[in-house]
Amino acid sequence: MLKINSYRKTFFPGTPNEVRALQGIDLEIEPGTWVNVIGTNGSGKSTLLNAVAGAFLPDEGKIFLNDREISRWPEHRRAKLIGRVFQDPFSGTAPSMSIAENLALASRRGQVRGFGRALSPSRANQFRGQVAAMNLNLEDRLENPIGTISGGQRQSITLLMAVMLKPSLLLLDEHTAALDPKSADRVIKLTQNFIQRDQLTTLMVTHSMAQAASLGDRVIMMDRGRIVHDISGSEKERLRPEDLLDRFEDIRRANQLDESVTEMLKSQFV
Amino acid sequence: MSLLIGSLTIGLILSLLAFGILISFRVVAFEDLTVDGSIALGGAVTASLIVGGMNPYLATLCAMLAGGIAGAITATLYTRFGINRLLSGILVMTGLYSINLRIMGKSNVPLLSHNSVMDSADALSRFLFGEETLIPIFGWQATARDISGLILITIYASLIGAILYAFFCTHLGLAMRAIGDNSTMIRASGVDVAMMTTLALFIGNALIALSGALIAQYQGFADVQMGIGMLVWGVASVILGESLVGTKKIGFLIAGAIMGSVLFRLLIAIALRWGLNPNDLKLITAVFVFAALVLPKVFSVGSRFKKVSANA
Questions:
Q1: What ipTM was estimated for this complex?
Q2: Best of B176, B179, B182, B253 to disrupt the A interface by mutation (most A CBs within 10 Å)?
Q3: Which one of A70, A84, A96, A164 makes the best mutation probe of the B interface by having the most chain B beta carbons within 10 Å?
Q4: Tally of CB atoms within 10 A around B37
Q5: Residue B221: partners with Cβ closer than 8 Å, 6 or more residues away
Q6: Whole-model pTM?
Q7: In this complex, is the C-beta atom of B246 within 8 Å of any C-beta atom belonging to chain A?
Q8: By Cβ atoms counted within 10 A, which residue in B2, B50, B67, B196 is the most buried?
Q9: Please, what are the domains in chain A?
Q10: Structurally, what CATH architecture does the domain formed by B2-275 represent?
């Protein structure tokens, strides 16, 4: 279970470039729940994922995973509990190493890495079976450098790597955004399969309203570093992409109103 | 003939230097400038310990340990104190110059009258050639001791290359290789990149110091200046090796480092034979590395240009 308590993060504080990325996030996710995160550019949705993954430490607030406080843990320590897939297909794998070697790396996520042989014949067979089950036609090319396969295939492999050791939390950061529609579709199906198979607690950032509405158990919408909508239960089941677009429109209007009010106040008082 | 054998032997000893540079520059992508200091450190530590009466093998091990510590310090300056990578290496290298002088007590320590790991070459020579001292090879005469030395160093270099390859196939070695390839990914897999970088630089500089220790024992002296320009030399060997094997597979890179180092040493020996002024050696090496780095780019730009004009 993931629990975030009044999390705040400001980048470059006290400079002209100051960014209040997360302004008090409270979030609780039940085990086995799939939560989609949507929001405009700069709303803080990817920052939220990075905060949980440990890319930076909080200014204020706490994060709990499996009832353990992880707010001060470095990124590599949190990796023991968290599996991740990034937006950029190049981020999730080591390009000049073979597919099998990448899988071997993932098979030790968060564990002690000793002098044991990484790719014994039995492990190689196991990897071949896992890859074959994904229907990517890669099972006979496991010795090839992973940099030579397509973006969609790489994202599929990265997904397999993230769930190979069952993570307490799966973080997906727009993991289909950089793919062509067909590959994106395939990766999403794979994602669904893995999440259902292992009952994974998932936090998925997406830019696709269709994905947000049709997948998962809950949707949170972010704006300017805050969670502004939280849709779950029967409301989530009835949710259509248009409903989400309407809410975006509301936010946009409200923001414009804010801006015009600021302008007005400026012209009157400054 | 003895010039050829000498070049091969030095080339093989320096392949250990190339291994070290392969680990830091390629495997973990850390531009480690400690090299010039740690190779001389290896020579200095072995020389003083051997002169002090220690077993030469033990002295060589101590040299490796000292080199490893120097590398770990460079890594720590970068990972814990946030000092720029190049500057971290330069700081340690500069400091090592004084430390090496302190260790040796003077700028040059002769070893010819002492035991060394090269003594095993004499034993090997007696085993292989009996009491013969001059062995004919392809019509030339070579001393049995030179040939045995070459055989011995070949065994050492291949053995260390094999151990290195085996290491890079373990879980630990795999994680180390991923650092230079994609540090984001390996961090997300739960690897402490700072620790792993430190370990890589420890191993790399231990090998570099080993190379320095062997050179000192082969040449019969350790000199505080012996490290100057060795970094560029090693980089040249690694680049040459990469172009010889033409792949990024780690086993080939290790074999390539040996071949590159030997080939580069032979090229230099030939150039010297043809009358190259030894004072120009470092300049030639530097120009060679420059050419090796830039020429592939020039050619690829050229081919792209050709493609564009072919399409038009």
A1: 0.86
A2: B182
A3: A96
A4: 34
A5: B47, B108, B109, B110, B111, B112
A6: 0.89
A7: no
A8: B67
A9: 2-92+150-239 (3.40.50.300)
A10: Orthogonal Bundle (1.10)
